[in-house]
Amino acid sequence: MHGAVVESIGSGIALGRVTGTLDLDEIAAHFGVSRSLIREALRTLAAKGMVAARQRSGTRVTPVQEWAALDEQVIRWRAAGPDRFKQLHDSLEIRERLEPLAARRMALKQDEEWIAVLRRATQQIDQAVTMRDQRLMASADTTYHRALYLGSGSELLAETSETVHACLWIPDFQEVQRFNPQTPQRHRRLTQAIVDGRAEAAEEACVEVIMLTRLVFASAHEEIVRARSRSADRRPAPRT
């Protein structure tokens, strides 16, 4: 129940439905749970920066600038809100800086376990594009890019892997079929550079992969916007 309450309040805050000072009695009555459970749920959200307790003024929803932007749940909640496209753009900018570094470090470290994961994910990406299997593509692509961070040998980069995972699973973009014939080719080139231990080549190949990712997501964004615009145009005009 704790998780359900955190999920409901957190997503409500991200969507702008829950604002201002929170009434613990009202929330407890809504969920049919105790005040202590609500307080525990709010402590979880406070750790994510989404609420703050103040003496005398109670617990208030905080501005978005104070939220833990790299938290996996916060990313997922914001992905359903009005800031989802900005969030995706920001995440791609971070990946453009960090992922090539992760690829370089992975090529130098030569961790056999994570290289094996990378190889399997590369094959699955190839298969997904051939079969035009969106679910397999999302799963394989997520596994691949997480492996870059986790196989880098850097604890700080490894921490970023869950952020990447959350951003790749933003629901809007899972609704759009995005298959580019260059995707398997660029991932194979990056994988081979890492397997060969060619750090500079791995870094350069990773830059190319991220560039393609930005183009793919930009195209998906435009498609979503056009689809919503068409849907709005088909709505009947309000009566006067």
TrEMBL record:
<protein>
    <submittedName>
        <fullName>FadR/GntR family transcriptional regulator</fullName>
    </submittedName>
</protein>
<keyword id="KW-0805">Transcription regulation</keyword>
<keyword id="KW-0238">DNA-binding</keyword>
<dbReference type="InterPro" id="IPR000524">
    <property type="entry name" value="Tscrpt_reg_HTH_GntR"/>
</dbReference>
<dbReference type="InterPro" id="IPR011711">
    <property type="entry name" value="GntR_C"/>
</dbReference>
<dbReference type="InterPro" id="IPR036390">
    <property type="entry name" value="WH_DNA-bd_sf"/>
</dbReference>
<feature type="domain" description="HTH gntR-type">
    <location>
        <begin position="1"/>
        <end position="64"/>
    </location>
</feature>
<dbReference type="Pfam" id="PF00392">
    <property type="entry name" value="GntR"/>
</dbReference>
<keyword id="KW-0804">Transcription</keyword>
<dbReference type="InterPro" id="IPR008920">
    <property type="entry name" value="TF_FadR/GntR_C"/>
</dbReference>
<dbReference type="InterPro" id="IPR036388">
    <property type="entry name" value="WH-like_DNA-bd_sf"/>
</dbReference>
<dbReference type="Pfam" id="PF07729">
    <property type="entry name" value="FCD"/>
</dbReference>
